[in-house]
Design a protein that fits this description.
The chain is an alpha/beta fold. The chain has 12 helices and 10 strands.
C-alpha cells in the first residue's frame, strides 16, 4: 500500500505551478453566508468572505487547524454549529454548564484565530442587505446583468484580491477557491470569465464521500466559513438593535488580520440597476442576449 498522503492544496497549486515552487502559488479561499430562511428572498444579509495566502502557508495552516480540532474532539469546523452547540459540537459540549461551554468555545475561537493570523496574508469580505438589493436592483436588471447576490459579493471580493495582488507587485496566477455550497455557480463562472479572471474552483470544506469515493476537505475553507459567519452575525446583531460583544471573534479578525470589511451601499445597487437597464437586447438565432 502506498504511503502517499493526498493533499488537495498541493494538487490545486501544482495545477498552476507544476515546478517545485508550487508552495508559492497564491490561493484565495472564500465561502458564503446567508439567511437560511430564504437566501435572496429574505430581508436580511448576504456575505462572501475569505482569505488569501500561499499554498505552502495553507498546508501548514491545515495541519495546525486539524490538530486543534482533534484536541477538541471534532473533525470539521462549522462556525454556525460552534456558535449554537449543534451537531459535532453538541456531542462534545452538550453536558457542560453554560459558563464552562462559553469558556471552551471562546478558547477554541481564539486558538483558531491565532492559527489563521499566523498563516494568511489578507482577509476579504463583501456583504449586502437583501432588502436593499431586492428594492434597488430589479429582477429585470439582474437577468440582464446575469447577477445575483452571490455573484455581486463574490466578484467584489475577487476584484479586491486582484487589487491587493497589484499592490504587492504580484503578477502570477491566483487560484480562487469557493465552498461548493452556493447559489449561482454558473453565473459566477460566467462573470469570472468576462472579467478576465481564471475559472473559479469549487471544493468542499469538510471530507465528503460520494459513491464510495472520498473527497478530502480543503481545510482553509473552514477559516473562510468562520469569517463569513462572523460578518453575518455582526449584521444580525445590528439589525436586532443589540450591542455587539467585545469578545466576538470579529473584533480580533478586524484588529489582527489585514484587510477591511466591504459592503454594497444602496447607491451602488441603484447605479448597477441603471447600468443594466441601458443594455440593449439583440437576437442571435433564437436566443435573446444583451450588449452595452
Amino acid at each position: 500500500m502506498s504511503s502517499f498522503a493526498y493533499s488537495p492544496i498541493q494538487h490545486l497549486a501544482r495545477a498552476v505551478r507544476p515546478s517545485e515552487n508550487w508552495g508559492d502559488t497564491l490561493l484565495a479561499m472564500f465561502t458564503v453566508y446567508f439567511d437560511a430562511s430564504g437566501k435572496e428572498h429574505s430581508e436580511h444579509y448576504f456575505v462572501v468572505a475569505g482569505f488569501i495566502s500561499s499554498a505552502k502557508n495553507w498546508e501548514r495552516f491545515s495541519a495546525q487547524w486539524n490538530q486543534r480540532l482533534k484536541i477538541e474532539g471534532v473533525s470539521c469546523f462549522h462556525a454556525v454549529d460552534a456558535q449554537s452547540r449543534e451537531k459535532q459540537f453538541h456531542n462534545i459540549w452538550k453536558d457542560l454548564e453554560e459558563s464552562i461551554w462559553h469558556a471552551k468555545r471562546s478558547k477554541l475561537w481564539n486558538d483558531l484565530i491565532d492559527i489563521i493570523a499566523d498563516n494568511v496574508f489578507q482577509k476579504f469580505s463583501c456583504g449586502l442587505n437583501i432588502k436593499n438589493y431586492s428594492e434597488r436592483l430589479s429582477e429585470d436588471s439582474r437577468q440582464r446583468g446575469k447577477v445575483n447576490a452571490y455573484v455581486l459579493c463574490a466578484m467584489a471580493c475577487a476584484q479586491r484580491v486582484r487589487q491587493w495582488a497589484r499592490w504587492q507587485d504580484h503578477h502570477e496566477p491566483i487560484e480562487y477557491v469557493f465552498d461548493q455550497d452556493d447559489d449561482g455557480w454558473g453565473l459566477l463562472q460566467d462573470s469570472f470569465k468576462n472579467d478576465g479572471f481564471p475559472a473559479p474552483i469549487q471544493k468542499n470544506k469538510c471530507d465528503q464521500i460520494k459513491k464510495d469515493i472520498i473527497y478530502p476537505a480543503v481545510v482553509p475553507l473552514q477559516a473562510a466559513d468562520f469569517l463569513a459567519n462572523e460578518c453575518f452575525i455582526a449584521k444580525k446583531i445590528i439589525r436586532l438593535g443589540r450591542m455587539r460583544s467585545p469578545d466576538r471573534p470579529l473584533v480580533r479578525f478586524g484588529k489582527e488580520i489585514n484587510g477591511d470589511f466591504a459592503h454594497f451601499p444602496e447607491m451602488a445597487l441603484s447605479e448597477l440597476d441603471q447600468h443594466f437597464k441601458k443594455r440593449m437586447p439583440f437576437k442571435k438565432g433564437n436566443i435573446w442576449s444583451y450588449t452595452s
